Amino acid sequence: MTNCRSNLIKAAGLFAASIFASTAQSAPIGFGVDGDTTSSTLYTIDFATGMGTVIGSVGAVGFSDVEGISFFGSTLYGIDDSSNSLITIDTTTGVGTSVGALGTNIRNPGFAISTSGLAIAGDSNDLWTIDLMTGAATSLNSSVGFDLEGLTFLGDILFGVDAGEDSLYTIDTMTGVASLVGAGSTLSGLSAEAALATDGINLFAADDDGDYFKIDPLTGLATVITRNGTDVEGLTIRVPEPAALFGMGLLSLCLVRRKARS
Fold it and tell me: What domains sit in the chain, N to C, each tagged with a CATH number?
C-alpha cells in the first residue's frame, strides 16, 4: 500500500512536471457556488487558501438555489433545487440557462459528471442519473443509506462524502451502492451541505461553513486546508482529460493491487 501510494505521488509529479510545468507546484483553481446567497453566487476557488473570487450571479436569470455543479468538457452544469432543474452556467459571467426540468424534487444535491457524460445527482439517501440533454432525472438508488451531498468523478470512479458520517465513499454507478473508503470519520467538522471536487489526483471537500479539506482518495484521510474559506455548496475543477485519465489509471492500479493483497 505504501509503495503504491509512493508510486502514485512520484508518477503524478513527473506527469505534472512534463505537461503542466508552469503550474506543477500550484494548488488547483476551481469553481464554487453558494446557493444560500440571494442569487446563488458563483466563485473561482483557490484551493491553496479556500478563498473565492466572485464571478457573478447565477440567480440573475431566476435560479436562486444552485448547489451541485460539474463540468462536462468545457460546459459547466448545475442543479437548481429551487426550480428542480438542470442548468448550464457561463463561467465568465455566472449567468445560468435552463436545460430542463428534473421531474423530481432534489434538495441540497451533490452532482458529478464523468468524462463519458454519465451524470449523477444525490441528496439524502437518494441517487439519480441525469440526462444532460433534457435534464430528466431517473432513480438509481432510493435507499443508499448515506447522505451523499458531495459527489465527484475521479476518472470513472464516483466518490461521495457524507458529512454526517465524516467519511468518504466510492459509489457503484450501476447500482448506487456506496462503500466506505478507509476507516472513515476523517472529515470532522464538515457540515451537512458539503461539496466534493477533484484535480485528477486528489479530492477536495468544502462546505457552506467555509471548511476546506484535501483528501487522499486511496485512504480517505483528510488534511484541513482552512476553516475560514469561502462558503460553498457546490464545487468543481475543470480537469484536462489527460490528467483525469492518468489519475484514474494510477488510482485503479493501486486499488487492484490493494485488493489482491487483502
Answer: 28-261 (2.120.10.30)
pLDDT of residue 22 exceeding 60, the answer is: no
Distance (Å, whole) CA 25 – CA 199: 13
* pTM, two decimal places: 0.84
Distance of alpha carbon 251 from alpha carbon 244, whole angstroms: 10
What is the distance between the alpha carbons of residues 177 and 31, in angstroms, rounded to a whole number? 28
In tens, the pLDDT along 155-182 reads 999 999 999 899 999 999 999 999 999 8
If DSSP states are collapsed to H, E and C, what string results for the chain? CHHHHHHHHHHHHHHHHHHCHHHCCCCCEEEEEECCCCCCEEEEEECCCCEEEEEEEHHHHCCCCEEEEEEECCEEEEEECCCCEEEEECCCCCCEEEEEECCCCCCCCEEEECCCCCEEEEEECEEEEECCCCCCEEEEECCCCCECCEEEEECCEEEEEECCCCEEEEECCCCCCEEECCCCCCCCCCCCCEEEEECCCCEEEEECCCCEEEECCCCCCEEEEECCCCCCCEEECCCCHHHHHHHHHHHHHHHHHHHHHC
Cell of 111: 452532482
Using one digit for the tens of pLDDT, what is the confidence trace for 38-89? Answer: 778 999 999 999 999 999 887 765 688 999 999 999 999 999 988 999 999 9
- Confidence band for 124, pLDDT divided at 50, 70 and 90: confident
